[in-house]
Amino acid sequence: MPIRPQYELFTDGACTGNPGPGGWAFILRAVSEGTGEEFEHSGGEARTTNNRMELMAVIAGLQALPSPSEVVLHADSQYVTRGLSEWLDGWKRKGWRTTSGPVKNVDLWKTLDGLRTTHAIRPVWVQGHANHPENTRCDRLAVEASRRFAGD
Question: Which secondary-structure segment (H or E) carries 40?
Answer without folding.
Answer: strand 38-48
